[in-house]
């Protein structure tokens, strides 16, 4: 009898798969139930947003940027506007800086609660999904009250924000924050003490601190591995410099950092609490003043038409650092625009997280970084109607050519 | 601990559903027909949840006030606004509109405003209800 050779199997999942919310293709190499190797392929939802941006003026791009991602519908236009403000040397009034923090933190609360529900759904705990979405509904109601719509806020304006928060609105905000605080304890209890959650998330999808640093993970994914990285503290944009808060790492609560899915749940839950406190601090210390540096939009457009230069906008989105690069060349339309969404940095950490796990853990481990494929898909290459991949050298050459073109 | 959600789930059994049953308690076999019946008074609609003030809904256009400056066309992100050369007024295609209200902000004579109306679904994108002029 010939000896049995041990072989591994290939398991493709995606790009379209019931377990995936958005298109991404995985190629797993499995040995029985264990994952030996993973390869990730992106590029299925490319929408040419950056190209479309170069056909529009900066004010129109704000609304285009809002549609890069439905959940981060505030941080994308805001990062773009930070970049344009840097180019045009626009000073944002202090009152507007505080308003920007409030809207940013409201978005973070929405996003993290939504994520918590999705994570519960991924492990089959659907009653928690409905609990989280009931809480999120209250936050969306507040968003609608402050901005005029639930998801696409349309609150960003270059040089400030579009709507003021007046003292008459404070009671409604405080009421919602109080509701959140009351419900937070329930949420914490369900997520951190429940046996099902502990069984499925402890020791699952581990990302060590070294790997997180090496693979440049960002946002809650990096912080759950003990990396103290948060643009709000590292760079201090908006009014964050005046506010009292600190990096959220899991050792704040448990005293140890494991970098597993459980730690990522802890970080996000604590960040909800932190965001509530940040909004309260903002309301308490709110300075008076204008909400936008140039209220006449036609005048602002005329000014933006004359500016020349390039700028970057960095800010901490709910999922991590979002980065926008903009170049303008004294033209009505922007010349170049590049977006780097946080999920782009959090894709590579999937590989060490998934290695050695079981097939059934794929959804929760993948969901634990809060991936957003639509944000990430920025590049696709099509020639003669066939899409093809580029090798490293060719990409490098194209990159050099692009730098030359932009500097020309 | 086990069954941490159990009190919540059991408690829910005796409460009213959170969901607002809109437009009717039971899904009608044809929504279009149901809405027709609502408009001629033979059926009753379960009202939607009230929208807050300053909600960004269907655009209202005051044609008399408009001076035809074309500024709204310049800022519209979706190019939903068309200029009527002969009468120097605008026409807005709501099927393209993204309800950002940027045209309201830039209008020098405030002839545009946002209403609370949001029931704009239609089978024809050029229907009379979806063109404001």
Gyration radius of chain B (Cα, Å) is 21 Å
**How many E-type strands of chain B?**
5
**Gap from first CA to last CA of chain B:** 62 Å
What is the second-level CATH architecture of the largest domain in chain B? Answer: 2-Layer Sandwich
What class, by secondary structure content of chain B? alpha+beta
Number of domains of chain B: 2
Largest sheet of chain B: 3 strands, antiparallel
The quaternary structure here is heterodimer
Biggest β-sheet: strands ordered side by side in the sheet of chain A:
1-2-3
CATH fold field value of the largest domain in chain B: Alpha-Beta Plaits
Question: Are there runs of chain B of 5+ residues with pLDDT below 50, and where?
Answer: none
Number of helices of chain B: 4
- Succession of helices and strands of chain B: HHEHEEHEE
If you compute it from the alpha carbons, what radius of gyration of chain A comes out, rounded to the nearest whole angstrom? 22 Å
List the chains of the largest interface with their residue counts: A-B, 33 and 27 residues
Count of beta strands of chain A: 10
Q: Could you state the CATH homologous superfamily of chain A? A: Cytochrome-c3 Hydrogenase, chain B
At the first level of CATH, what is the class of chain A? Answer: Mainly Alpha
Structural class by SSE content of chain A? alpha+beta
Number of helices of chain A: 18
């Amino acid at each position: 009898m010939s000896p049995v050779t041990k072989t591994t199997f290939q398991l493709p999942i995606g790009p379209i798969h019931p377990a995936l919310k958005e298109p991404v293709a995985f190629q797993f190499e499995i040995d029985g139930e264990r994952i030996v190797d993973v390869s990730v392929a992106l590029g299925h939802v490319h929408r040419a947003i950056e190209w479309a941006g170069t056909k529009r003026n900066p004010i129109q791009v704000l609304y285009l940027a809002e549609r890069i991602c439905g959940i981060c519908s505030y941080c994308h236009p805001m990062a773009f506007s930070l970049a344009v403000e840097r180019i045009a040397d626009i000073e944002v009034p202090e009152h507007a800086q505080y308003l920007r923090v409030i809207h940013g933190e409201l978005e973070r609360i929405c996003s993290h609660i939504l994520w918590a529900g999705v994570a519960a759904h991924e492990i089959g705990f659907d009653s928690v999904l409905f609990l989280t979405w009931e809480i999120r509904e209250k936050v969306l109601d507040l968003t609608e009250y402050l901005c005029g719509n639930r998801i696409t806020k349309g609150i960003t304006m270059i040089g400030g924000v579009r709507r003021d928060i007046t003292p008459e609105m404070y009671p409604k905000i405080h009421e919602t924050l109080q509701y959140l605080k009351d419900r937070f304890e329930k949420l914490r209890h369900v997520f951190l003490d429940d046996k099902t959650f502990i069984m499925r998330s402890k020791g699952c999808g581990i990302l060590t601190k070294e790997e997180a640093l090496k693979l440049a993970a960002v946002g809650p994914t990096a912080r759950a591995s003990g990396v103290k990285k948060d643009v709000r503290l590292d760079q201090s944009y908006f009014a964050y410099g005046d506010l009292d808060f600190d990096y959220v790492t899991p050792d704040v609560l448990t005293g140890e950092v494991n970098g597993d899915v459980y730690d990522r749940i802890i970080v996000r839950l604590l960040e909800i609490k932190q965001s509530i406190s940040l909004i309260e601090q903002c309301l308490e210390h709110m300075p008076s003043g204008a909400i936008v540096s140039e209220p006449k939009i036609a005048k602002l457009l005329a000014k933006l038409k004359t500016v020349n230069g390039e700028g970057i906008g960095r800010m901490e989105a709910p999922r991590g650092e979002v980065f926008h690069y903009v170049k303008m060349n004294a033209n009505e339309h922007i010349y170049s625009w590049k977006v780097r969404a946080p999920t782009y940095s959090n894709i590579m950490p999937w590989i060490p997280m998934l290695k050695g796990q079981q097939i059934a853990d794929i959804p929760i481990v993948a969901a634990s970084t809060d991936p957003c494929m639509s944000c990430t898909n920025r590049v696709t290459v099509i020639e003669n109607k066939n899409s093809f991949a580029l090798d490293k050298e060719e990409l490098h050459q194209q990159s050099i050519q692009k730098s030359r073109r932009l500097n020309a | 601990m086990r069954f941490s959600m159990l009190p919540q789930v059991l408690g829910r059994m005796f409460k009213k559903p959170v969901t607002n049953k809109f437009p009717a308690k039971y899904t009608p076999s044809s929504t279009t027909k149901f809405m027709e019946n609502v408009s001629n008074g033979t059926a009753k609609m379960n009202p939607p949840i009230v929208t807050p003030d300053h909600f960004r809904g269907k655009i209202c256009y005051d044609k008399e006030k408009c001076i035809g400056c074309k500024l709204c066309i310049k800022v519209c992100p979706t190019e939903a606004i068309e200029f009527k050369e002969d009468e120097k007024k605008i026409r807005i295609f709501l099927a393209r509109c993204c309800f950002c209200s940027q045209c309201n902000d830039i209008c020098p004579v405030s002839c545009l405003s946002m209403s609370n109306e949001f029931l704009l679904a239609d089978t024809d994108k050029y229907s009379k209800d979806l063109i404001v002029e």
